[in-house]
Amino acid sequence: MLIHFGNVPLLVISCPQVTNDIVKTYNPNFANRLKLKPVDIYLNGGRDILFASYGEDWKNLKSLCMVHLLNNKMVRSFEKLREEEIKVLTKKLEEACSSSSPVYLRKLLLTLTSDIICRITLGRKYNSEEGGTIYKNLEMASSEFFGKFFVGDFFPSLAWIDRISGIEDEMKDVNNKLNGFLDSIVQEHVDAADHEEPSDFVDILLSIQKDQTKRFELDRATTVTLLEWTMTELMRHLECMKKLRDEISSVSAHNSYVTEKEVEKMDCLHCVIKEGLRLHPSGPLLSRIFTEDIQLKGYDIAAGTQVIINAWSIQRNPDIWGHDAEEYKPERHFGSNIDFIGSDPKFIPFGGGRRRCPGIGFAMVLSKLTLANLVKQFNWRVMVGPGVDDDKPDLAEAPGIDVCRKFPLIVFPSLVHA
Ligand code: HEM
Predict the structure, then answer these.
(1) Closest ligand 1 atom, CA of 311?
(2) 2-213+220-393: CATH architecture
(3) Residue 171, class by beta-carbon neighbours within 10 Å (0-12 exposed, 13-18 middle, 19+ buried)?
(4) How many Å lie between the centroid of ligand 1 and the Cα of residue 201?
(5) What is the DSSP string of 145-202?
(6) Where are the chain's structural domains?
(7) Which residues face 412 on adjacent strands?
(8) pLDDT for 81-119, tens place per residue?
(9) In testing the pocket of ligand 1, which one of 139, 219, 285 has its CB within 8 Å of the most ligand atoms?
C-alpha cells in the first residue's frame, strides 16, 4: 500500500512474500533506515548503530558489537553476572512479599537490564546519586520522543510548528544531558589509567580509538517489553502459567534459582517466549528507505520512498497463523519449525537481512532466565486499577519506538513455597 503522507511517499508492506524480497535480498539499497526528527536531534543525525547509514561506519560499529559483546561466547561469559543481578531482583520481590507491597514490574525489569548492561559495557552499576536515574529517565524520554508525530517530517514547509511547540528544545536538552553523562563515564575510564587489560566495553572502545570515542547504547528496553508482555499474557492465561511452572519445577527441582543450563532444556518456556514475540513484537514496524529507483514485484518504486514493514500485522495474519491468530497460544509452536531469527518472513520480531537485530542471543538468554526465575519462585496477582479488566491485565498498547503496555503492570508477588 502506497500512501502519500504529506510530501513523503510511504510504502507499507504487510505480506511475507514482499518482506522476503526486501529484508533477505543482498541489495544494499534496502539496508538503510528512515531518519525522522528525533533521530536528527536526539541521536545526532543517527550516528548510532541502529540508524547509521549502511556503509563503513555501520560496518565498523556492527563488527565491534559482534566481536566484543554479542557473539555467543561473549554472551555466555556473562552468566555469573546475570545470576547475581537476577538474585538481586528476586530478593527485592521477596521483600515485597513479606510486606505485601505492590511492585511496578517494568521498573524492576528496567533496573535489572540496566544494571546488567551497565556492568557489561561501563564496568559497574550507576546508582541514583551517580547518574543511574538520569540515565533511566533519559532512556524513557527517548522512547517517548520516538512515539511523537513531527509535522516537519512530512510537511517540511511547516517545520516551524515543531520549533515553536518547544519539543525540539526539549529533545536538545535531553540529548545534552545524556551526552554529559556519557562523557563523564568516558572520563572516568580515561582517568583509571591503571587498567592493565580492558575490562569493559568502554575500555575496549577507548583502546581501539583513543581520541574518537563513539557513543554506543545497548538495547535494553526491548527485552523488558518482551518480558512485561509475556508476564501480562501469563497472568491472563493461568493454565499456561501453571504448565510453565510445572515444567520449570520438574527440570529445576533442587535450588530456588533456575540456572542457564536448566533453562536450555525447557521447551514450554521457549514456546511461551516465542508466542510473546509473535503477538507483541517490541519493534512492530521495521523501517527502511530505498536509496535508488527499484522494481519490486513488477512495480517501479522511486528512490527516497520510505518503507514500513508491518511485522505486527504479519504475525497476526489468520492466513498464516490460523483463525485463532489473535489468541495467545504457546502450544502452536510445539514441534513447529518456523523460527524467529529472520530467516522466515512470516515471523520477524528481530527484523531480517543486513539490519537484523544482532542482540538475539543476548535477549533470549536473559528473557528466559528472568522469566523462569519469576515464575518458579513467585505467584502473581495484578493490582486493580487502570489497565485491568476482570482482575486480568488488559492488552492496551502505548505509542513509541518500542511498543510497551499503555498502563503500568502493578503486581503483588507472593512466594510459591512460603
Ligand atoms: C526481545 C528483545 C529484542 C527485540 C524484540 C529486538 C528487535 C529488534 C528489531 C526489530 C530491530 C530492527 C531489525 C530490522 O530493521 O531488520 C533491532 C535492531 C537492533 N537491535 Fe534488537 N531487539 C531486542 C534486543 C536487543 C538486544 C538485547 C540488543 C543488544 C544487546 C539489541 C541490539 C540491536 C541493534 C544494535 C540493532 C540495530 C542493528 C542494525 O541496524 O544494524 N537488540 N532489534
Answers:
(1) 10
(2) Orthogonal Bundle (1.10)
(3) buried
(4) 18
(5) HHTS--HHHH-GGGTHHHHHHTHHHHHHHHHHHHHHHHHHHHHHHHH-TT-SS--SHH
(6) 2-213+220-393
(7) 381
(8) 999 999 999 999 999 999 999 999 998 998 899 889 888
(9) 219
